[in-house]
Protein: ATP synthase subunit a
Amino acid sequence: MNLSFFDQFSSPSLLGIPLILISMTFPALLLPSQNNRWITSRLSTLQLWLVNLITKQLMMPLNKKGHKWALILTSLMVFLLLTNLLGLLPYTFTPTTQLSMNLALAIPLWLATVLTGLRNQPSASLGHLLPEGTPTPLIPALILIETTSLLIRPLALGVRLTANLTAGHLLIQLISTATTALLPTMPTVSLLTLLILLLLTILEVAVAMIQAYVFVLLLSLYLQENI
Structure:
């Protein structure tokens, strides 16, 4: 019984072929196709407004040099947002519950920000490893601590996103199972758990949006340190 709760996090496959790539590309199918008109419908207007709002929020902590990353960060934000929200639908698979995928997104982008800093301002980037005014005996220890904190950033990004989504999905499945099991014997308690399930679902929708925003916002802050 305990193992069945985690079956939802196993990557689906068909004839031995993993379907995770299809589930990753599915959010792109929801976006309206482009044509010669700027605005074609209310849906495209809402999409443009949402993308504009996301871009403004992500570019706010960055200077003009960091605006070159607007397309990458906004695309990542929209991808994570749609993937997280689609994963809350019944009988769906959420790719962002896989730590391997989240690390595959976090590590290259984090490494790109670090390499950008080393190329544009190597002295300032390396200076973050040793705060000014550090006593001489503490220099080796502080360099080791700062280097470790720098290297652990992509791992923290991936684990944070994975843990929050996984915990939410497990809670939803546990409470829904309890609601179904209590319905024949204690319908009143079952209705109460159903209300809790609805409130938890609303909370998970908010968590899905917030975690996508936090993931990309932290990447933009890492970028700001290196430009």
User: Anything to note?
Assistant: Strands lie at 13-14, 17-18. Helices lie at 20-29, 42-59, 70-86, 99-120, 122-127, 139-151, 153-182, 187-225.
